[in-house]
Write a structure and sequence with these properties.
The chain is mostly helical. The chain is built from 6 helices and no strands.
């Protein structure tokens, strides 16, 4: 087989993998939006749909990884092509984690259904989830377009998500201090908010992989972050 044929075959295989990534990204975006809506409306049927749909996201990640491993073994890509394959695998891993966080949101929405509601808190959470969903969409658009500029913009916007998270944290803390009966509800909403914030982190990591693909190196400067609020922070 000529070099030209090999290159064309590699390009076809890579396009197929990219199509899997975009399908996976679409499923994750939908899962996040549906999970946020389930939290806002306490829709248990929708929450169950999100949880059930996570299996398809996991299966796509396995498919992407298997195809990338095959590409590396058969085509022995180098330079830009190798960066592309490695980045695709990293992006798939981050999307899978985003799917897990959406599933966690759905699980906690069912717990919220039996707790005292907190006026305004779910609205703040809904706005935060919408902003994170847009961040994820833009990171995937940057991947498809190989747009390092858009990827750099996404990376900077993670700062805004941190600010929204900290503002919501303070809102929840106020509820707990004013009425101890709201503590359980506020804790659940905090865990949900932390999951949403982490989806933003993964969207930013995807953007950084796009920068790596287009420039050959990851950003040298530290990602701008808002200092975490002390208290309820930590692993969720």
């Amino acid at each position: 087989m000529s070099n030209e044929h090999i290159l064309r075959a590699f390009d076809r295989d890579l396009e197929a993998v990219q199509a899997m990534i975009m399908k996976m990204g679409g499923l994750v975006e939908t899962a996040l939006a549906d999970a946020a809506r389930a939290v806002d409306t306490l829709d248990e049927v929708l929450a169950d749909q999100v949880r059930a749909g996570d299996a398809a996201i996991d299966a796509l990640e396995e498919q992407v990884n298997a195809e990338c491993a095959r590409l590396i073994a058969l085509r022995a890509p180098m330079g830009t092509d190798l960066r592309m394959v490695l980045s695709v695998m990293k992006i798939a891993s981050n999307l899978e984690r985003c799917g897990d966080y959406a599933k966690n949101l759905a699980k906690r929405s069912k717990v919220l259904a039996g707790l005292q509601p907190l006026p305004g808190a779910t609205g703040s959470l809904k706005r935060m989830a919408k902003a994170v969903g847009l961040l994820l969409k833009d990171s995937l658009d940057a991947f498809i377009a190989r747009d390092g500029g858009l990827a750099a913009e996404v990376r900077l916007r993670d700062h805004e998500i941190d600010q929204m998270y900290n503002a919501l944290f303070r809102e929840l803390l106020t509820h707990m201090l004013e009425d101890s009966r709201t503590i359980t509800s506020a804790m659940q909403l905090h865990f949900i908010a932390k999951n949403v914030e982490r989806v933003g982190d993964h969207a930013t990591t995807i953007a950084e992989q796009v920068i790596y693909m287009t420039t050959g190196s990851l950003p040298a400067d530290a990602r701008p972050k808002v200092d975490a609020v002390a208290g309820l922070g930590g692993q969720v």
